[in-house]
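Let's do one together. I've listed all components of the complex below, 702 residues spread over two lines.
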Amino acid sequence: MIGILGGGQLGRMLAMAAARLGMRTHIFCPDPDSPAFEVTPHKTVAAYDDEAALAAFADAVDVITYEFENVPAATAEFLAARKPLRPGANALAISQDRLAEKTFLASKNIPVASYRAIESLTDLEAAIAALGLPAVLKTTRLGYDGKGQRVLRTPQDAASAFAALEPKPLVLEAFVPFEKEISVVVARNAGGEVKSFDAAENVHTNHILHTSTVPADIAPGVEKHAAMLAKVIVVALDYVGVLGVEFFVVPGEERPSLTVNEIAPRVHNSGHWTEAVCLTDQFEQHIRAVLGWPLGDPARMADVVMENLIGDAVNTVPGEIDGNTQAHLYGKAEARPGRKMGHVNRITRRR
Amino acid sequence: MIGILGGGQLGRMLAMAAARLGMRTHIFCPDPDSPAFEVTPHKTVAAYDDEAALAAFADAVDVITYEFENVPAATAEFLAARKPLRPGANALAISQDRLAEKTFLASKNIPVASYRAIESLTDLEAAIAALGLPAVLKTTRLGYDGKGQRVLRTPQDAASAFAALEPKPLVLEAFVPFEKEISVVVARNAGGEVKSFDAAENVHTNHILHTSTVPADIAPGVEKHAAMLAKVIVVALDYVGVLGVEFFVVPGEERPSLTVNEIAPRVHNSGHWTEAVCLTDQFEQHIRAVLGWPLGDPARMADVVMENLIGDAVNTVPGEIDGNTQAHLYGKAEARPGRKMGHVNRITRRR
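Okay, and this is what the predicted structure of the assembly comes out as:
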C-alpha cells in the first residue's frame, strides 16, 4: 500500500501508475473533492497537521510519497519517523525554499541565475545595483505558476513589489535572456540507477505551462548537458523518485548554455508526454523508484507535443480531438479559468 | 459514472481507462476481493440476481458495461430497462451460447467449424458420422479457458464425454487443422465508426493464452480478411464497444483461409498488447464507444509480444524483467496455478 500526500491530478496519475503495477494506494489530502480520491478506495481527508490522522495514515501504508513540494516540513518529519518517505524530507526542504535551492545548486557548480537574498528594501536596492534590471523579485516559499513574483523593470518598481510580496524573505533573480525553456524529468532509485527522459521544450502562457514538445529543438550537446546536470542534482540529493528540472537555454557566442531555473521533487507537468509514447512513463518510473524496483526504460517511441487543457479548453475533448491525439482528463468538476483540467498528447511523427 | 458488471482484471483495466478520460466508475461484483475494487471508491458487492442491489446500481450510474460474457440474461434485461447497457443484451445472448453464436455467424456467411447440436448420445453418434474424428464436444454455455470441452479421438470416447459434460445441450465441432491462431480486437461506436487493432498471433498453453505477437506472421491479405470479418460481425450485431474475434488460420492450396473460432463481447486478453504501443488501447477504445465518443486511433508504434503471467510466473516481476518490457499486474493476492496474475508487453522492434 503506497501512501500519497496530496490528491491533485499528479497524485491521481501516480495512483493509476501504482495500480498498473498491482499496488494499492491511499491518498491523504484535506480537499474532499481531490481528483485522486476517484481512483482508489483508500483515503484520508484531513489537514496536513492533523497528527492523529497522519499517524493512522502511516500505519495503513508501507511507504509514503507526495505529489506536491509544499508538504509542511513538520508533516514530512512526522511521517518519515514512521514509514519510509520517498523522496526524502531533504529534497522537500531544498525545493520549498528558493534560497535553499539556489544555494544547493550553486554549491554543486550548477549554473543558476545570479541572485540575492532580500530581507529589506535596502537589500533590494543593493541587489538591483548588483544584478541590474530587469530582474525578478520572488517569495522564497509557496510560489508556483507565476504567483508570488514580480518583474522589476525600473527602480521605481522596487518599493511596491517589495510591499506586495509576502512572506519575507524574498529573493531577487537576475533576468535570464533565454532563447527557450527546456526541462528534463529524471529518475533515481535507491540502488543509484539514474535514467532521464528526453528533454522537452516548454512554452508557458500566463506563467502556466502551455505546451511541451519532444524532441526539444536543441543541439545534442545541449540535451546531453541538461541530462548530465539533472543527474548531478539527483545524485547530490541522494534522491529516490522522479525529479523535474527546468532550464533556461541561453544563446552564446559559440554555443548555447544552460541555467537551471527550478527543480521540483515530484512528477512534472512537462513530463506528461511520457504517458503517450514511452514504455515506462514518469508516473510509473516514480512508483518504481519509491518501491525500490529497477527503473524502467525511458526511451520514447514517437515525437509528441503535450498541450495542457486549461479552464474551458477541456471542452474540446472529445469533439475537437483528432486521431493522432491522446486525451487525459483529471475528472475535476469545475473548469475554472487557469485551472489545469487535463492534457492532450499529440503524436507529431511516428518513428 | 460508468457502471461495470464484473470486477476481474478486465473490469479493473476498463476502470483505469475510464479514469484517464476523467470518468468515474462503479463496479458491481459478488466477489469481495475483486481486483477492480482497488481502482475506484464506488462498488456494490452483491449477487447478479439481487434486484434491489441492481436497481440501486442502475440509479447510481449513467451507462453500464460489462467485462465478462456470462452476465445472466435476466440481469442484462433488468439493467437495460433502466440505463443504457453497452454492448447490448443481444451481443451477450449470442456470445453466451455456442449454438447461437455459430448460427449467427453462419447466417452472415462467416466461416465457422462445421458443427452439430447434440441433445442425446444418438445425436452425438450421428454427428460423429457426419463430421468425422477427431472432433471437439463442448457445452454450449459457460465454458472458457478449456473447461467444458472434450476432444473425441475414437468413437469409444463419445459416451463418457457425453456423460461428463453438463449442462446439455452440447455442440460437436469438427476439428480444424489450423496452422496458427490469430485474433482481431475490433471496436464500433453508436455512430457506426469501426476501427480494429492489428491482428495478433496467439499461442495457448493448457487452453490458456500464453503469448500474443504483433504483427502476426500472416500475409497482408489474410490480415485484411480477418479485419473485414470482424467488421461484418460488429455491424451485424449493431454492436457498441470492443469485441474480440478469435480465428483459426487454415492452410490452403493457394492461400490460407480463416475460420472464426469464437467471439467475445468484451475487451480481450489477446488485446492487452495495445496498452504498451497504441495511442488508444483497447480499454480506452471500449470506454469511448460506451460513452458515445469518437473512436481513437488504433495504430501501433512498435512491434510487441504480450505474455500472460500465470500463477507464480507473476514473481518474475520486477527482478527478471528487462528494460524493453512493460509489466502490468492485477493486484490479486493469491498466485494460484492457472490464475491470470498479470501480463508483460515486450517491445520486439521499435519502428
